[in-house]
């Protein structure tokens, strides 16, 4: 009987760890189509994320083939949390409200514009536990926060050139992974229609802004399904999989027809407010 093919663990840019299934033919020409599998304490048997793998800073790596060279990154959008100023010096300060919740043993707080609301992302019911989303007055989801016991994904190891649209420093380091940035990345799949269909994209270009462990320069390429970063919070509470830290996913996504439109959005007041909201994430309740 042939020995089972090993699993190959790949470190995705943006600090998102995923697992590539190496059960392919000897020539490496085919690979079983997998699924992304966010994990929680309710599915310990599906745990694919190795605790030790998250004890170090993740580096960008490819799975098999070389990482394609991406286009030159955009100049980072210079901004700082709570700056309340436009590039021309004008004031754009808005009132802020704080939201506090508890999920998977993590108590947390973040700030958002007063006109926005926070609700349970799954049911629309009272917020405070599980996944939550911040909504603009018109009901648009501006960003979503999920905290998991662990996180992992199986995915095709196909990366596409990525464009960095800017970082913003987080206001407080996380207890497990330390300092973080709010990183905005864009992928343009105009020339990859099959990828757009496979990943069910609404348009050619996607921008993902997310809480990301501060692990150095942004990646030059990303997997379309795994554009977001993550952070780690220490709880001291032992979960069923034997770990005491939790994975924080705080992300915002937008779809655009062109990369030029994506760059314009990255320079907008709305995007800055989203960055500041994610950057304000901190452990503990207000």
Structure description:
The protein is mostly beta strands and 286 residues long. Helix content is 9%, strand content 34%. It has helices at residues 193-198, 259-266, 269-279; strands at 7-11, 17-21, 36-39, 96-103, 106-113, 117-120, 132-135, 141-148, 150-153, 160-169, 180-188, 205-213, 221-222, 231-234, 245-256, 282-283. The strands form four sheets. Strands 6, 7, 8, 10, 11, 12, 13, 14 and 15 form a nine-stranded antiparallel sheet that branches. It has a three-stranded antiparallel sheet with strand order 4-5-16. Strands 1-2 form a two-stranded antiparallel sheet.
Structural class call reads mainly beta
Can you give the mean pLDDT?
73
Distance between the termini: 59 Å
Number of strands: 16
Strand content: 25-35%
Unreliably modeled segments: 1-91
Query: Judging from the principal axes of the Cα atoms, what is the shape?
Result: globular
Question: Taking Cα atoms only, what radius of gyration do you get, to the nearest Å?
Answer: 19 Å
Quaternary structure type: single chain
Helix content range of the residues, please? under 10%
